[in-house]
Amino acid sequence: MNNDSAIPDFTQINELTNNSSPGPSSDAGQSDSWNDKRVVVHVDLNSFYPSCEELRFPLLVGKPHAVIMTREEQGRITKGVIASCSYEAKKMGVRSAMPLSTALKACPDLVLNRVDIPYYATISEKVMKVLHDCSDILEQTSIDEAFLDCSDKIHALVIHKHKATEVDDSVLVHRPSKRECESVRNLSNSHLIEDFAISIKNKIKSECGLLTSVGVAPTKSIAKIASDFRKPDGLTIVPPTAVPNFLENLEVERISGIGTITKKSLKQMGIETIGQLARTDVQTLVHRFGNKYGIRMWKIAKGLDEDPVRPRSEHVSLSTEYTLPNFTKDKQRLLIHFDALTDELFRRIQRKGYRFRTVGIKLVHADFVVETRERSYLHYQDTRQSISNAIPGLLQKFYSTVTERQEGQAANNMIENRPLNTGTELFINVPIRKIGIKISNLILNRGSGKEEGQSSILDYL
Question: Could you give the residue numbers annotated as active site?
């Protein structure tokens, strides 16, 4: 493993990129070189919530500790659910989504901290600023994960390496010749991408104090699988030529979106590894799982998915989601998860200076059926309570048919929107795999003058 000193700092890399010819194309031919493939990096912040607590309380380092989803105050935590825990706690048998009482039986010395999403979001912002400088395109997918398309930066570094024998700084404004561009095709035989990935890890460690697991691959899905391959503090690089061998014996559930039910269905078809999935006729998968999902699984297994790294654009709505570690149909447990999501979402609303009118929630069934419900306030809102007050009533609509008057004061200042889907109102016995909150009908709170933002039908009444 090479030392990152072989790589220019990221200010130089950015300048190199701006003055180099266009980098690799995602739709180029089928060459085995990285030049004909994207260089996609997936960064996963290891045990993020507990690691943030260690930054705040250094005495926690090396101890078993956990972040708890609870309504109780810090220092008086007696019940709740484990949101995340340190690796020392994991060695003792503590796991995410475990009830606190069970966790304390496994690890009586477990140190407890209450979930603090606003604090974690502040640390996440700092990390994302670092990653922005390291990438051509940055796609933050959650508070602790992001994809980076680094194709142009890697291309520029190869040209820089080829010109390294020159002693002056003219390389920073040099436009490469055709012969020099051909040197990019030797990337698969070099350690340059490894050095680049190590530089990213070292930069996050030095500037943010956090460990990361990083995966590098020609597609987003494989980069994600690669970052999960070695934890904590891992680095896995999958060159284009190594994709089939890397995926061959991995379990199918390593593919994002393949959960317990899909895994069971695939097993019934004799498919347990990604290699077996890749060799399955795509029409068989489409017949069993539908056109969109069947083709998606097959393309990922073959290393053919072309999902681009997409930057976050200006929001027309704000949303957040959470995949439950264990499926549940317990409403109180769902409300605890929604409470944590509310903290994260409200922090973003405040930071961007938005007010909102509509609150919506989403539940994803164990069988991937999606149900949504939303309600709109008659007037724009700007408080956390305006989100949290709406959620119990919205959640109740997934369990039973409830009239407006039965939901108390919410009926006085909110109107109900029809669900976007046509699913059933009654599925209390169906477990949930993922939840989400969406805030829409946004306006910018500029402090004076006319507020600008999305219009709704209520603006014209």
Answer: 145
